[in-house]
Known about the structure:
Chain A is of the alpha+beta class.
Amino acid sequence: MEKHPSYPALAAIIPKYPRAAGGLFQAYNDILYSQQWVDVGVVDLPECGRGAIKGRKRDTETTLYVVPCSLAETVSFSWLQTAFKLLAEPEEIYLAVTSEDASIVYYKISLGIVKPPV
Amino acid sequence: MSLITPSNRSRGPHKGGFRRNENNRIYGNPFPLLFVEPPPSRTKSVLNLLGLSLTRLENPHCEGIFDPTTRSVWVSNQSDSLVLWRRGFYGKGDLSRSEPSWLARQINLRKMGGKQLTSEEITARRRAERQQFKRDRAAAIAAVAEEAETIFATEGRVITPALSGPAIPSAATWKPSTPSIPEASATPTLPEDVPEELEPLKDVEHLQLTLQEAWFLIWNLGCLTVLDRHTLESVSLKDLWTSFQLAHLPPLLPGLTSPMLQFDNPFLVNYVAYHHYRSLGWVVKGGIKFCVDYLLYKRGPVFTHAEFALVVLPVYEDPEDEKLSSIQLQNVSPFGWSWLSTINRVNSQVQKTLILVYVTIPARSRVSLEVLESPACLQYYSVREVVLRRFIPARMRD
């Protein structure tokens, strides 16, 4: 993993939270290479015990946040609320659920009720 | 031509039969090991009469690197990845939906409109078209409703706005109004930009094997060697067996010499289920998309959708072991009905049958912990299955 080209960007956060390291690495690679977001950076969320990813989709202006977590973890309501607070109250965050076979599933979580678009 | 409307016309060389034959040819070997028959000859028939065979076993000898952080084995070599994917559907490209196709997608993107679309691109197009169709349909329904309102306002006649009919597009009749490739208008400017930013593309993708898949290939089929990620030397089977278990345990404290291996290690419990179904001939893949642990495919994801969804439920033979254990296994305590119903509903919607797989963890009082040093400990685990289907008495009379 240390030889992977995206490791330097994560080198500060991965040793700090070893249990969340796998999920962060996988989510970061997916966002940067597969989804091809631009201005991708990492945000430290100490109360949640992990790092989050920020970036924006190509040709858009809003910064979006992705919080990785692994399939084996339990996600509590307070944990999510803390994440919202630490990321300066965005409208929505993406929860990236990672698994060992490199599958990743994104859930969009918003504060409050959201009407469906169509 | 839309990707979401049902189309009966064959599209030349890509019609159904051709695709099926192609798939049968490419994915024809369900095993990474190949049995190569020599051409028929006199010596061969004589040996066959004696019960001997000249069939050679061809072993692809793939190599992978163990990464404990992501708890997986990475295969970076492209030919090895292809062999493992095409012969048995082992692993998944970490930047793709199935086989590693990231490099192909990037090359396509650079060439802007390559003819060979990867599966991700086809899916992306189909989803974009479906979104457009939904918007058109919503607009048409709104227009019909408005018309009904104006008729009521002017003439006083009440018309219930129809939700289907000639004015409203359905999946069978809708045609995409805008071209499916919105970037088509940008192509005139692109050929001038491309030579400037063209740097050689480095393939950052690898094939990722779960520890269960990797152990199955290493131990049962003997076609995978795992290298240490720092020294790049091959790791012995015994060391691998312990490393795979240790990957799930919390890191060693400096004072302790050897960590305690336990029977309820998630690697072991999941491996028992994986091994059971793989050895029965099913293709077992991860089921995170459907809220379950594993999906069972009859021949592979390329052929049909998965028929069964597995949830692995570990059961401690001795309840005392659960209290003393430092590992928090998921799904050990009995399912609540609401949770079980949710998972069953999700899977019924996608036409999969839910199977609950109970894996019994041996009691420490019966089996000593020393057996965990080798895979021989697997004989103490057992697997039982319960198939779950939702029963609707009104509809299911037969």
